[in-house]
Amino acid sequence: MNSAEKLEKMLRLEKPKDRSEIPYFPQIITWAGTVSGISQKEMIFDVDQNIRALDLTFEKIGKPDVMMCTAMRDTTFIMGIPVRLPGKDLEDNALYQFVESDLFTLPEGGEYERIRKMGWQNWNGELLCRIQDPPFTSLEQLFGRFALMGQNAGKMAMHFIPQGIQPLTHTACAPVFDTLSQSHTMEEFCYDLYDYPEEVKQVILECTPAVIGQAIGTAKQVQGNRVGVYAMRSSATFVSPDAFEEFCWPGLKMMIEAFWAEGITTVLHADGNWLPMLSYFTRLPKSSVHFEFDGDTDMRKGYE
What we know:
By secondary structure, the chain is α/β, with parallel strands linked by helices. It is about 55% helix and about 10% strand. The protein has helices spanning about 5-10, 30-35, 40-45, 45-60, 70-80, 110-120, 120-130, 140-160, 175-185, 185-195, 195-220, 240-260, 280, 300-304, and strands at about 65, 85, 95-100, 165, 170-175, 225-230, 265-270, 290-295. The strands form three sheets. It has a four-stranded parallel sheet, with helices on one face. A two-stranded parallel ribbon has the order 1-4. Helix 12 (about 240-260) links the parallel strand 6 and strand 7 (about 265-270). Helix 6 (about 110-120) packs across helix 7 and helix 11 (about 195-220) packs parallel to helix 12 (about 240-260). The radius of gyration is 19 Å and the shape is globular. The two termini are about 25 Å apart. The relative contact order is 0.10. The model has no long low-confidence stretch (mean pLDDT about 95).
């Protein structure tokens, strides 16, 4: 079986005959610099060096079946949170650092009404402009940055796909809940879940369709059928199972079902401990969602 066949078989939840049919996906980002001897600064600011570092790494460890075709600089850009970069704010070989800052502009729950009036895409675009260093002063700059991100992704995909390496996803997005948590800081957002629960839920339900629409549009544009969903604040590491059911699950369920209806599989980037939340996903169509766990989720119990 080639890499594409292995991946499709896995996505259909068909059991492999042996280990040779299991797709190999090492999620390598910064470690490629250690293996290749290329600095973190070079990988961040030069997509060609980023690709070269991955090539050198794969020469040493073997080519994977699947990889994430996102340039490091674009990973730091699209997170929607201020970042310190090697070679700019840090030493050349330091790892990039996200800096959690309160980016809300109005106190006492006022930001949620502001989001609803502006619309999610306008609000999120404004936020992305504000956190750049130096800040973007026009939407044209933001659109140009997204265009560059697309060019970088295409460059990486066209380099690795001919080698038989498949992209894990064809586009990505984040649930509204998780973006709110990151942009308001976890502590302040947790207070809001207690003080302004209805306002938070209203924003999630009203704005999630905009996230869905943009992701589906991008996936269809590139003729892709897998979307990454970065739900990094919805695990038991950050919220209780009760809070997950009340605030996180409605938006996640809406996203996964909407993608599946369009023939798109969700790959949930599941940092933290998701074990207490996994039973919710058994209510969804079979094979509609797959998970990227880290060491905090017991994978054997998760599989069960």
